[in-house]
Amino acid sequence: MATGQETEADLEAYDELETRIERIANVGNAAGILRWDQEVIMPEGGTPARAKQLSTLSSLSHELLTDERTGELLETLEDQDLEGEQAAVVREVRRQYDRATSVPQDLVEEISETTSNAHPTWMEAREADDFSIFEPTLEKLVELKREYATHVDSDADPYAVLFAEYEPYLDLETAERVLERLRDELVPLIEAIDESDAEIETDAFAGEFDDDDQEALARDVLDSLGYDWDRGRLDTAPHPFSSGTQFDARVTTRFDESDLLGSITSTIHEFGHANYTLGLPDEGYGTPLGESRDLTVHESQSRLWENHVGRSRAFWEHFLPIARERFPELEAVSPEAAYEAANQVYDDNLIRVEADELTYHLHIVIRFEIERDLIAGDLEVADVPEAWNDKYEAYLGIRPETDADGCLQDIHWSHGSFGYFPTYSLGSVLAAQLYTAAEDDLGDLDERTREGEFADLNQWLREEIHAHGKRYTTPDLVEEATGEGYTADHFLAYAKSKYGELYDLEGY
Ligand code: ZN
């Protein structure tokens, strides 16, 4: 048992740690605003100075985290059996501290420099449609990241270490099992859809739609879902994203005159991310208790709103009349036609970011299998294009004709991000599990969606997910919210029932 005096010392140590990590969080959040500015409004000429500003903030945050004093405080606090929120804060800071201190600074710098140079090389390779231009860089990045993983944990599978950077608590075996199941059950479902004779209304949103009117409609979408404009804003960016804190979580989207549906679904997706951030507790700001629970949970929030709400029949019954006010030409489109257009499965699409809700996961499985084998040394970098194309043929029945439409299409590997891709699918799977649990608790959600009533669902997500920040590990958070372990059951049941009905499939 701790004596009264020791308790006071613990409190001091805890307060000191809290002050320290809040400074680190402030530096990180300031960098976030600079990055937002760079993506959204900065003139191109600003790049050299911005790169220096961001690099200085990144070193500053690294120094604060890896300072000896952080280690001393963690040890002091670990000796005292803290519980609840304080124990969670110590667990999370320990994780970050161990990762940051275990990797030599010169390796960190080499990775950072290599990835900065990798970006233009990747762009060049993609434009020239020639993987060999990018190959030496990718080889180097694979080597450096493998070395990085060995420093973090020399006993662990290096790919598992890299995956844990994005999803620290769902172990790789769980991820692997879920992704294999998606592959094994979605491949036959998509084949059945290919062979279906069902007539799907695919051109409900064909035509040209003015950008300014699309922006007004994107604001209508955000209004309707309950976005808090006092703590957010909407802008455009070439690659939509959302970023910020619980006090200011911004959304970006993009408009393409020929793709109205794309701007609506992308706005709803980014709303889901921003809405999660806005639901983090104000009083947790600056500590892990006020931070989101990593990429799987983040993506579950965006996919829940995008797919389970935004691609439902009920949503189009609610939203089509709103859309018609901006675009009277949609007068002839029925909610059923809008629903079908929003859910058509593209059996000949090679590009991940243009994929539908089902084939998307095979794009992810392919990337996962390739990067896992690359890091393990089971696949040579030079053989990536062929492995990529073979897998597209095997899983989706299509073969890219070019590297640009094949293994050069995504930016992630040029950032040195290996282990990031799986979190997209893991998040979708979790979205289905959470949506099912919310319906179990709240009753029929479609009825509310049809009325444009999203407050109950949002409140449920606030209480079950957002309010906890990083208080629980991912598996515990899922268990607390849904009463069961993380599982793909709900996603697969949802996918089979929805698409079985839509495409009139026998046996689904
Ligand atoms: Zn997302």
Describe the protein's architecture and organization.
By secondary structure, this protein is mainly alpha-helical. The protein has two domains: 4-166; 172-502, Orthogonal Bundle (Neurolysin, domain 3). The chain has helices spanning 4-40, 47-66, 68-79, 84-102, 105-128, 131-152, 158-166, 172-195, 211-225, 260-279, 294-309, 313-326, 335-342, 360-376, 384-396, 422-442, 445-450, 455-464, 474-482, 489-502; strands at 234-236, 242-245, 248-253. The chain has a three-stranded mixed β-sheet with strand order 1-3-2. Strand 2 and strand 3 (248-253) form a beta hairpin. Helix 1 packs across helix 3 (68-79), helix 3 packs antiparallel against helix 4 and helix 10 (260-279) packs across helix 11 (294-309). It is globular, with a radius of gyration of 23 Å. The site of zinc ion (ZN) has 4 residues, from helix 10 and helix 11.
